Amino acid sequence: MNARSPILALPATLLVAACSALGLGGPVTAEAPLAATKGSTVSGTVKFVEGDAGVLVEARVTGLAPGKHGFHIHEKGDCSAPDATSAGGHFNPTGEPHGSPERGAHHLGDMPMLIADADGNARLDTILEGVTINGKGEGNIVGRGVIVHAAADDFLTQPTGNSGARVACGVIALRK
């Protein structure tokens, strides 16, 4: 978890199950199944849960090279190009420079890096501020793309962070 994430944050799946069991209908949730781009073996799932503090992001990704990988929400929910360039650039409705979501100015689509272990598995639980999945406001991310990159994000190079090729792409859709 990043420094702003609550220490006791429940994984999204437990939160949804608890609310449903209590008859509360549960929070608004969305999901982006990740598919490999051409020549890649990366796959996984990114879940999103709307909350009072922001949107909880729960990412589980496999098939990565060990180490750090850029991870972003992109403008378009289009993964049709073999290299996922059809997803466009980073989601940035506020016109901010690219940067770390943990400090300073950044695109709304900038997320903390995925860090893959020696087996190529990465897990990330974080909270994004300024985005929504409830369909309201300029920060709505439903229908946008999620991209996993081949290399680490330097959080400096404009406008992409120099994170290399796109190795997986998914489209964020509401869950019912």
UniProtKB/TrEMBL annotation:
Cofactor(s) listed in the protein's UniProt record: Cu cation; Zn(2+)
Cofactor comment text: Binds 1 copper ion per subunit. Binds 1 zinc ion per subunit.
Pfam family, one: Sod_Cu
Region (Disordered): 82-104
Signal peptide: 1-23
Function per UniProt: Destroys radicals which are normally produced within the cells and which are toxic to biological systems.
Name of the featured protein: Superoxide dismutase [Cu-Zn]
Provenance organism: Aromatoleum toluvorans
